[in-house]
Amino acid sequence: MNFKATRIDRDEGSDAHGQFQTGKVLALSVCHFIHDIYSSFLSPLLPLLIEKLSLSLTQAGFTSTVLQLPSLLNPMLGTLADRISVRYFIILAPMITAVSMSLIGAAPSYAVLLILLTIAGVSVSIFHVPAPVMVARLSGSRKGRGMSFFMTGGELARAVGPLAAVGVVALVGLQRFYSVMLVGIFASLWLFLRFREVPIRSASATPTSLTGVWREMRHIMVPLTGILVFRGFMHAALATFLPTFIKLDTGNLWLAGVGLAVFETAGVFGVMASGSLSDRFGRRRILMISLLGAPFSLLLFTATGGWIRFAALLLVGFTLLSTTPVMLALVQENARSSPSASNGFFMMMAFIARSAVVVVVGFVADLIGLRTTYLISALLGLLAIPIVLRLPPDKPVS
Q1: Residue 251 backbone zone (phi > 0: left; psi -120 to 50: alpha; other: beta)
Q2: 186 or 337, which is more confident
Q3: Window from 16-20, 74-78, 221-225 with minimum mean pLDDT
Q4: Is the model's pTM score more than 0.70?
Q5: How far apart are CA 137 and CA 17, in angstroms?
Q6: CATH topology for 21-201?
Q7: Nearest to 75 by CA among 331, 329, 390
Q8: C-alpha to C-alpha distance for 322 and 274, rounded to whole angstroms
Q9: The domain 208-392: what is its CATH number?
Q10: Under 8 Å between Cβ of 303 and 172
Q11: pLDDT in tens, 339-377
């Protein structure tokens, strides 16, 4: 594989060629971290909510669906973001998510719980659809680096959020869990002070209909959707079922928890590195390396034991989770007219692929066992590699 340095396509307009604004990108990344900590509270609190509200497992499972369902509105929210200034949507989202998710412990009924989760789900979409667009604008020509910073905040939140939720409940109890909302409120205040005069839209953007956005972005969205689906089998097998796999294989619950922490931590480092590397070596090349590394390291993890398995888990976490910043950067540098709507399409497809694939993986695992399912998931992951070749080629440095 030729690793000659490449450059990425650059958006037209002065903002595309501007300097990387480290302070503002870091501020958005920190607020992404704070925001996503709140959106990760449901899973660790769910056992307590089941007990308090006498929920069935079906009702409990539906809460996660309600929280994620507003993702289907992402393209419409993106179109709105391209047509009006939604700077304050980004600013207010951490506060709205914090307030709604902090109140779920005090919900007096299942209906109120669903209302709070719906509000939080809409707020999550309002933040995640336009925020990468602002990061892209603040990153100049180094969009990959900006997306790595931004996504590192989200990856860290998924690792820290459950621990924070359990710790707060241990200190103040479920009924007084609402006190944690103060951090999210202060995050919104900080965003207001830093970004109240920063525009979200590019001066060259010319918002169009959703149909027009799809026609413009189809050459990117179709292959990215294929990558998301085949990558999704590996991601679902590990992110959802890794503790179960390790517990069944070793009988050690503590080791199962450590395994998931190792996987997620390796992913944080992968996310931090991949975007900047794709700025230098090209988006398609870094995606190819990641999508080659993840299946082979998953096969190694499944077939071995001891320290080799541990090293394979580090490698699969690093490679598998490193693809998102690269794909986000690809979307933004190809979205000429409606960057927020384009990002909304990408996020909607990621949600649909993730939600559908995890059900399939669970169903197959029930039939043939997790070990064989892991092997099949790794082999399916290899099918993403030829799809990468359908992405626009990286352009060499002139």
Answers
A1: left
A2: 186
A3: 16-20
A4: yes
A5: 9
A6: Growth Hormone; Chain: A; (1.20.1250)
A7: 331
A8: 6
A9: 1.20.1250.20
A10: no
A11: 888 888 888 888 888 877 887 888 888 889 889 999 999
